[in-house]
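RETRY 2/3 - previous attempt timed out on the joint model. Re-submitting the same 309-residue input unchanged.
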Amino acid sequence: MFKWFGAAAMAALLSPLGAFAQSAPSYFKLSSNPDFAKYRPALVDYLHSQHYRKATRFCVFGTKDDGNVTATVIWPDGQQIIDWGGNDSSLADSTSIVHLKTDVVPTENDLHGSTYLVTRKWVNDQQAICRKNGETVRISAADLKQ
Amino acid sequence: MITLPDQMSVAGIKARLFLCECPAPSDHSYTPDDAAEAINLMDMVIRNRVANPRPFMATGPSVLAVVQARGQFAGFGNYPNISPGLRTHIQDILAIANNPRDQRSASYQDFVNKVLTVSNATSNTDPSPGKLVAWRTHNQSSPGTGFVLFKTVLKNDFYYKVG
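RETRY 2/3 succeeded.
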């Protein structure tokens, strides 16, 4: 117990101020941000790259905190949550594509320092944030034939 | 023409990992300075894991064992067999960098050269107050208990451990 407390206190003392100065994130609709507003063609391109030809839907939202702006794409049918880099980048080139069938663990204790596994709570949080703050994008089979 | 080092060399393994983990110039958050810093921090993480592989599921003190460690780096668990999507991603980056007719070529060349410089470096200095040992996509939560957030660079949160 004491050893744990000592390590935690040491970490707190040594930690840069930034680690404790994080502001609460705010969320935005991608359609309201010019850097991310072209999400629809990006989604269609991604479905093409995945050889997916059926009607499907996405939930998308943006996050701002401490100068960081990110866009999250949730694809329930594809079982993926993707960090999208904005209008000039493709979803397939994302450095973070979470596959919900294989990349989700029960708790933080199961991460073991992983760079890409996520917890069930994180997934549930993303879905809840998107329901509350995001937009649903429906892509028809006809959209995919173009 | 830019090419990557042999895939089984230390520099080759690192270069492929960094190209897959660091957002490329097409990402709206990208700046050359942030990319240089992010790649450098990633390199430090790999070095610290090689020095202490066990907590990170690696079977031994080598770069190959560290990147192959179960559940640690997406698509690299069976290295040199990288997942098809990531293989395409690397090929796309090199294709843009090596195509002088592509207006993105200069920024991609610079990005790949930054990756190669760090991958080929013989040493690095840990800027954290402890041992920098992890990174996560920004806002994807801590990588576990005992990790302290060092800083966020180019949409990646870097974590260190003390002791």
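Residues 32-51 of chain B form the longest helix (20 residues). Closing ticket.
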